[in-house]
Amino acid sequence: MVKLLDEKTEASPDHVGWRLWQASRAWQVEFAAAMRSAGHAWFSEARAGLLGHIPRNGTRQSALIERAATSKQAVQQLLDGLEAEGVLERLPDPRDGRGKLVCYTRKGLDALRDGDRIKLQIERGYIDRIGEQRFAALMDALRTLDAGRGDASAGASGPK
Amino acid sequence: MVKLLDEKTEASPDHVGWRLWQASRAWQVEFAAAMRSAGHAWFSEARAGLLGHIPRNGTRQSALIERAATSKQAVQQLLDGLEAEGVLERLPDPRDGRGKLVCYTRKGLDALRDGDRIKLQIERGYIDRIGEQRFAALMDALRTLDAGRGDASAGASGPK
DNA sequence: CCGTATAGTCAAGATACTTGACGATATTCA
DNA sequence: TGAATATCGTCAAGTATCTTGACTATACGG
């Protein structure tokens, strides 16, 4: 295949990493836009990344820090912002005077509900675009990939 | 370990967006770590995102701005950094007095070469983890998804 | 009680990105 | 030609995210 000029399109190569990044980014942009349209102007990707680690019934801040792969200070600052927005609140942990429990407010739970709805909408769009079978294969591959962590990525993301 | 209260794991739901995000993030962390280990200490994820849009033979800065989905100022600041690191250089466009051509230096091309090698390594690791077939299905789904853009994400990423 | 570990905070700085304003060149068209 | 307009890139300031280091308060083990 003699591509004579076309070296111009050599960027954005066809690699897993790039594809994953592009797909992930597109999803986030679509989701964030829908969330903001739904009235959750406080929504951002970084905040979404944190909220994804907070179950509906709340969690201890320290547990949250373990799940998210960032520093406790980064988590704290995001929590500060979300608390200031009225999405979350921090209550003292009755079982540990040092700890705080991170819980959703009414506003936060409303956002979660809208988020679930939007996720399903986007998912339907994806299935329309690539077909049910391909979508299932995508999810299967991603799940398997995730399950196989702990070995391969141990050195990369290890807490040190 | 009998988890008796299981609502606790309700976070991080099993949705495409989350899976894509996690997978993309894991890839980037692994890739960036390998790049830095290979001696490219200047490497960062944001810079990688930009470099992915710059073909080996260079590009016009304005063309770059169109490809990357951010503001021209963001692109410029990343370019400033990469230029200061000696990875890129900006040459005047002989055909347009206003324009600049963004080109790789020797150092930049070396990094691209290492990057290609590392990508293949990671890809091999993925295939080992999820099998050749699943990996092929993953790539197929991601490519099809990407090809189907332009309608669905038009409103989200439009320049406006 | 004492030493150590854990939970969270405070403060400062780096990076990435956004907005607004601007100068320089190119293009269009009367 | 020459003026209006558009494009290309830069400068400057502000916001958001994340990182590091230092610190307080509580818990735990002896």
Oligomer: homodimer
Largest interface, and how many residues on either side? A-B, 63 and 64 residues
Indicate the overall shape of chain A.
Answer: globular
Query: Strand percentage of chain A, roughly?
Result: 5-15%
Q: Give me the CATH superfamily of one domain in chain A.
A: Winged helix-like DNA-binding domain superfamily/Winged helix DNA-binding domain
CATH class of one domain in chain A: Mainly Alpha
CATH topology of one domain in chain A: Arc Repressor Mutant, subunit A
Report the span from N to C terminus of chain A.
Answer: 47 Å
Topology as H/E string of chain A?
HHEHHEEHHH
What does this structure look like?
2 copies of one chain form a homodimer. With 160 residues, chain A is mainly alpha-helical. The first copy, chain A, has a domain at 43-132: Winged helix-like DNA-binding domain superfamily/Winged helix DNA-binding domain (Arc Repressor Mutant, subunit A, Orthogonal Bundle). In chain A, 59% of the residues lie in helices and 8% in strands. Chain A has a 3-stranded antiparallel β-sheet with strand order 1-3-2. In chain A, strand 2 (88-92) and strand 3 form a beta hairpin. In chain A, helix 5 (106-130) crosses helix 6 (132-147). Chain A is globular and about 50 Å long. Chain A starts with 15 loop residues before the first helix and ends with a helix. At the A-B interface, helix 1, helix 5, helix 6 and helix 7 of A face helix 1, helix 5, helix 6 and helix 7 of B. The structure holds a DNA duplex (30 and 30 nucleotides).
